[in-house]
Design goal:
alpha/beta; binds NADP nicotinamide-adenine-dinucleotide phosphate; 295 residues; Rossmann fold; 11 helices; binds hexanoyl-coenzyme A; 46% helix
């Protein structure tokens, strides 16, 4: 059987040629997949996170696979001085930066009352503080250089629905979404666009080990609760991200694009549970409803 279209690269060759893109958390998971595709499309890439050995291994692998230019830089995004240093290293290597992808995150499941204040802090510091640290440092730089640029933030759908058991992450992602929309307006005058992607479940080791530990992966088959009955493929997220950081999306600003197979709306619609009603019961149900009208 031939590969489905959605696992194929979407943009035309060289769509990101000449662009320099910084991807936080680019050594693993979705950050790595996005970085790989950006390289294939001709961009220069900086991947950054706390673990240099992981970054270096990914950088070597991606450079080998794509023949592209990729710089690994160690940086804890929750520390503003390290972020400024990471920006300097990127500019020193490539001469400029055009795009910031705020993808780094931390998360784990827990009843909120079991969390210490430090546990809450650690997630907020990575996700919200890390995102505003990078956005502020890069924004100041771009404004001073009078350079057009764009920011892409990776959030998730519970940024607007909220979610039990991942409350620090939900609070932080909501803040990131608000930052996205606020700066889309405020920094448009500097020709800096801000957009976000809200992914549903895309299998990665980082997310799965912390959100579905042990045999929870088998007990909670996530694909079952998604209207399209499958989880996401990394390439389809990379396709969307590449479009949003490319000049083809120049008029898209302040948008959050959900890519979740319909997952969050499935939980939202009050009558979506009627999916469980067997087809053959609908004749009987219709009769009951019509009878009620005539009474
Ligand atoms: C309760 C916990 C805990 C748990 C840690 N803590 N794990 N509390 N339940 N399961 C507490 C610790 O006791 C400590 O508080 C505080 O949190 C900080 O702990 P540290 O030891 O400093 O942190 P550590 O456990 O080493 O690291 C936590 C982390 C780590 C930083 C979040 O897992 C990490 O590096 N994650 C990065 C990658 C990641 O999380 N990726 C998943 C992204 S997925 P005390 O008070 O004891 O000192 C994602 C998906 C969203 O975002 C949507 C999916 C659909
Ligand atoms: P992942 O592989 O665990 O990625 C998280 C990355 O963040 C890691 O590379 C980690 O590297 C980095 N990081 C963590 N703390 C950092 C810090 N303080 N400074 C710099 N980097 C830090 O998980 P993923 O699934 O690919 O997640 C990527 C993004 O997608 C996240 O924003 C996540 O919220 C979002 N998302 C994922 C899913 C999903 O189903 N996978 C769904 C919705 C949203 P180090 O440990 O080396 O620092």
């Amino acid at each position: 059987m031939s590969e489905p279209t959605y696992v194929k690269p979407m943009l035309k060759e060289d769509a990101l040629k000449g662009k320099v893109i910084v991807v936080t958390g680019g050594g693993t998971g979705l950050g790595k997949s996005m970085s790989k595709y950006f390289l294939e499309l001709g961009a220069g890439i900086v991947i950054t996170s706390r673990k240099f050995d992981v970054l270096k291994k990914t950088a070597d692998e991606l450079a080998e696979q794509t023949k592209g230019n990729v710089l690994p830089v160690q940086c804890d995004v929750s520390d503003y001085a390290q972020v400024e240093n990471m920006l300097s290293e990127a500019v020193e290597k490539f001469g400029k930066v055009d795009v910031l992808v705020n993808n780094a995150a931390g998360n784990f499941i827990s009843p909120t009352e079991r969390l210490s204040n430090r546990a809450f802090d650690i997630i907020i510091n990575i996700v919200l503080k890390g995102t505003y640290n990078c956005t502020l440092a890069f924004g100041k730089h771009w404004i001073e250089k009078k350079q057009s640029a764009s920011v892409l933030n990776i959030v998730t759908t519970y940024a607007w629905t909220g979610s039990a058991y991942v409350v620090p992450s939900a609070c932080a992602k909501a803040g990131v979404l608000s930052l996205t929309r606020s700066l889309a307006v405020e920094w448009a005058k500097y020709r800096i666009r801000s957009n976000a992607i809200a992914p549903g479940p895309f299998p990665t080791k980082g997310a799965w080990d912390r959100l579905l530990p042990g045999d929870m992966k088998d007990k909670f088959d996530l694909a079952k609760k998604i209207p399209l009955k499958r989880v996401g493929e990394h390439q389809e997220l990379a396709n969307l991200a590449a479009y949003l950081v490319s000049d083809f999306s120049s008029y898209i600003n302040g948008e959050v694009i959900t890519i979740d197979g319909g997952e969050w709306l499935q939980g939202a619609g009050q009558f979506n549970l009627l999916e469980a009603v067997p087809k053959e019961m609908w004749d009987q149900i219709e009769l009951m409803v019509r009878k009620a009208k005539s009474e």
